[in-house]
Amino acid sequence: MLKNFPSDMLTKHEKFCETVNEVKSLGFNVSKAVFVLAVHVMTYGKATKERCYKIYKEWGWSDDDILSAFQKAPLCPLVSEGKLKRTLDFLVNRIGCEAGAIAKYPGILLFNLERRIIPRCLVVQHLLENGLIKKKWNLGSAMMTLDSYFLEICEHVSRYCSTIVERVHHQLFKTF
User: Fold this and answer.
1) How far is 153 from 176, CA to CA, in rounded Å?
2) CA atoms of 121 and 127, how far apart (whole Å)
3) Distance between CA atoms of residues 123 and 130, nearest Å
4) pTM for the complete prediction?
5) Residues 95 and 108 sit within 8 Å (Cβ to Cβ)
6) What's the first-to-final CA gap in the chain, in angstroms?
7) CA-based torsion, 117, 128, 90, 70: positive or negative
8) For residues 156 and 30, what is the distance between their CA atoms, to the nearest angstrom?
9) Where does the chain have alpha helices with state H?
10) Backbone torsions φ then ψ of 167, nearest 5 degrees
11) Which of 29, 87, 117, 151 lies 20 to 30 A from 144 at CA?
12) Per-residue pLDDT tens for 108-157?
């Protein structure tokens, strides 16, 4: 913590202990790295957390979804309001993902919308449209896969369907 977030250590001792205890009460394991990230996020003002909480609620997330998302990806509350809304809007309204599915993979909200999320979703959409994958696709698998592995899959599939590469290339160089 001292190495990555030294300013967090400058808070008053009592306040820091309260924050650590609050993070523990949320179910974080003190021996895991995500504990340090959660403590760091909790040192931010209450307004930051409430802003994210409000947005998640607007998109239909339950309190359990929000807590689970925070436990999996503690940095999510630090995503800007605009980016959070644009990403959720794209995934829910344009791609048709359920908000609950996004809550299962909250790390997705940390990814770049234009360079990672949109191109990958377009590839998945194209594969669905051409019957190359099942209707039930896993959002986490599509988004969380390493870039090198995902590109390898795209190259393999593009042998059979050349328009995938064109769609991804087009999306990478246009603004959303």
Assistant:
1) 24
2) 10
3) 11
4) 0.75
5) no
6) 37
7) negative
8) 42
9) 13-25, 33-42, 46-58, 63-72, 81-89, 99-104, 118-129, 139-144, 147-158, 163-172
10) -65, -45
11) 29
12) 999 999 988 998 888 888 777 777 777 777 777 788 888 888 777 777 76
